[in-house]
Amino acid sequence: MRVAIIGGTGFVGRYLVDALLDSGHSISLLVRQGSESKLQQPEKVHLVHGDLSNNESILRVLEGCDAAIYNVGILREVPRKGITFESTQYHGLVSTVDAALAVGVPRLLLMSANGVKLPGTRYQETKLHAEEYALNSGLNVTVFRPSVIFGDPQGSMEFATQLFNEMVRPPIPALSFFSGKDLKQGAVVMSPVHVNDVASAFLAALQNNECVGKTYALGGPEILTWKEMVSRIAAATGRRKWFLPMPIALMRIGAALFDWLPLFPVTRDQLSMLEEGNVADVAVLRSLIGREPTAFSVASLEYLDK
Fold first, then answer.
1. Residue 70, strand partner residues
2. I need a labelling partner for 45 at 20 to 30 A (CA). Which of 19, 133, 238, 245 fits?
3. 3-state class of 156 per DSSP?
């Protein structure tokens, strides 16, 4: 099968490329000039240079393909550079869907996010609007909503690496976020999912017509608190950490004042989503990939100690 990928040079995208190539699929990939150096096997990929603002390049990358994967998302906007949730997560998807319909690509796999809703944060709303546009387009669509994704970033940034750099490596206590007034009852919880398992889910759905029209929430085998995740990262890197309880309400005050600064660690929207938690039933992922998913364990976090 020939598959077009929009968003194939970032953290998850490179795993998608490798999984598809290893399974015998051919790939047409939209890349910015120079980004091809991020790929492990660029010589095996048909490269089309361009970006989401260029409809012609989107048409070219989709031409002759049997399916398309839209794997574009950002965690933080940079409006002065034209990087917004609306432009990347919604309008880019709309352009891709319209181009797929124009050139006759019947199948679309969409990377969304767990917890999208309306009303919600701008991140959540644009992801949800993209889902709705895709599912109502007439294409054969499958949507994935992963929890936080971890795994060797291969030079990019991912969840566990960011926590290591911001919470574990500094010689100060790590923050243990909680909502409300009770540290235990208000603990932030997530079900981290390994990037290889996410790539396997995409591959499985691509080859299974029963996945058409469905939306899958992808979560790993454990529901962990913020403190448990940071503790495992510390153990994987041979460190011990003290924790400072931090109410999200207090962080929100700081974000209201300073989240416009690029170096401020979180935005108000990110804190809102953190407070909501990010949990998905592992049975969904297990059923899709036909094996036990990888846990967020000391062994699976060894890449942090390189």
1. 6, 110
2. 133
3. coil
| Total of domains in the chain | 2
What is the C-alpha radius of gyration for the chain, rounded to an integer number of angstroms?
19
146 strand-pairing partners? 218
List Cβ neighbours of 136 (8 Å cut-off, separation of 6 or more).
Answer: none
CA–CA separation, 194 and 153 (whole Å) = 11
Among 77, 131, 136, 127, CA closest to 101: 136
Strands 189-190 and 224-225: antiparallel
Residue 137 domain boundaries: 2-146
Please indicate whether residue 259 or residue 233 has the higher confidence score (pLDDT): 233
Other beta carbons less than 10 A from residue 158's beta carbon: 19
Q: What is the CATH number of the domain that holds 8?
A: 3.40.50.720
Output the pLDDT for position 224: 95
30 shares its domain with 62: yes
Give pLDDT, residue 180.
Answer: 64
- pLDDT for 95-106, tens place per residue? 999 999 999 999
Residue 169 to residues 165, 166, 228, 231, 304, Cα–Cα distance (Å): 5, 7, 16, 12, 11
Measure the CA–CA gap between 107 and 100, rounded to whole angstroms. 8
In the chain the beta strands, taken as DSSP E runs, fall at 2-6, 26-31, 45-49, 67-70, 107-111, 140-146, 149-150, 174-178, 189-190, 193-194, 215-218, 224-225, 243-247
Confidence band, pLDDT 50/70/90 cuts, at residue 179: confident
